[in-house]
Amino acid sequence: MGFATDAIHGGDGNDDETGAVTPPIHLSTTFARHSVEEGRDYTYSRHNNPTREHLEKLVARLEGGSEGMAFASGMAAITAIFSTFTNGDHFVVTDNVYSGTFRALRKLQEHNGVKITFSDSSNLVAFKHSLTDETKLVFIETPTNPLLKVSDISSIAEAAHERGSLLCVDNSCLTPYLQQPLSLGADLVIHSTSKYFSGHSDTIGGVVITSNQEIAAALRSIQSVNGAVLSPFDCWLLMRGIKTLALRMNRHSENGQLIAEYLSNHPKVSKVYYPGLPSQPNSELARRQSSGSGGIVSVELEDQALAIRFLNSLKLFRLAESVGGVESMASHPYTMTFGKLSVEEKDHMGILPQLVRLSAGIEDVEDLIEDIDNAFEKAS
Ligand SMILES: *Cc1c(COP(=O)(O)O)cnc(C)c1O
């Protein structure tokens, strides 16, 4: 079956009892046994819940994995994976990694004795040199946010496996509709479902997908013991969002592409980051491993003052710390999403004060471009 069909029917959520075409939300915290001797499939909703199970099967199917695990946030999903490693293990991580992931890794390094090497995963040769025989986890994002660097998933998977390491890909920016890392050799995929996967800026969540039974069992145990599971209502909201994932991602990519092209020709813009532009490094690779570039477009303006005046002048683009909603959003990564990092850390990552990140929603692109145009006029 095609992706859009799977997104609607793939979770097998038909309610045979009532015929409801949309699955019910099972809010029950606990499930009564038939008798002391005879239990049921479900016991207590932290361990397992029918609505969560429905969602987990759906996301596993969409990513082409056998197991899905839903967590209370993207960070809960990421830290669940990290917590399966021990003292002395070595990680190699994309240097332009999501700021929350970076902060979690820094804590892991300080308190848990995990050794971490940050390296630019879009530079394949240098990145491979960072891997050693002690490397247990390679963690990449592609494209990265906000600099949209693209990394070669299948070559990195091969290099990781040669060293006996696992590869985990954060696929939040593209979703399985545009890119499927497991089919390119990755062992684990994570998503912040708070972004494109749910798509409506109304639920925080995270999922992990894998076909590795051993890792899946470890992560299920962490779900039960640490307890940061996604609530039944949030699972349902996410499933509702997933029904339109294919439609939304097509539109995000179309709008992103047109906005990136418009900005490449704008006199106030000194640099555009968008993998869908043929002039970009790795645009060829992006075309090969994904079927669209999504809605995130970053630009550098003349200086920080212009960037801030521009952002403050936007009207349709909401000034907000997120991406992936149906509504367009804009942010100043230097002071907002990366605000807690030191100047040196931001410098090292290439997050400059004049950088602006746009998240193209699914509105009419003419209106979005007019909003950008008006904001430039007001800011200049
Ligand atoms: C937002 C985000 C996260 C963290 O997810 P939360 O749901 O906010 O905890 C992780 N990775 C990427 C790429 C993100 O954009």
Could you explain how this protein is built, in words?
This protein is an alpha/beta fold. It has two domains: 3-242, Aspartate Aminotransferase, domain 2, CATH 3.40.640.10; 245-379, Aspartate Aminotransferase, domain 1 (Alpha-Beta Complex). The chain is 39% helix and 15% strand. It has helices at 3-9, 50-63, 74-82, 99-112, 124-129, 153-162, 175-178, 213-226, 232-242, 245-264, 283-289, 304-313, 343-349, 365-379, and strands spanning 67-71, 90-94, 115-119, 135-141, 166-170, 188-192, 206-210, 269-273, 296-301, 318-319, 329-331, 355-359. A seven-stranded mixed sheet has the order 1-7-6-5-4-2-3, with helices on both faces. Strands 8-9-12-11-10 form a five-stranded mixed sheet, covered by helices on one side. The model has no long low-confidence stretch (mean pLDDT 96). Pyridoxal-5'-phosphate binds at residues 73-75, 98, 100-101, 141, 145, 170, 172-173, 192, 194-195, 204, 206.
Question: Any chance you could write out the topology, listing elements then pairs?
Answer:
Elements lengths: L2 H7 L40 H14 L3 E5 L2 H9 L7 E5 L4 H14 L2 E5 L4 H6 L5 E7 L11 H10 L3 E5 L4 H4 L9 E5 L13 E5 L2 H14 L5 H11 L2 H20 L4 E5 L9 H7 L6 E6 L2 H10 L4 E2 L9 E3 L11 H7 L5 E5 L5 H15 L1
Parallel strand pairs: 2-3, 2-4, 4-5, 5-6, 10-11
Antiparallel strand pairs: 1-7, 6-7, 8-9, 9-12, 11-12
Helix pairs in contact: 2-9, 3-4, 12-14
The structure holds pyridoxal-5'-phosphate.
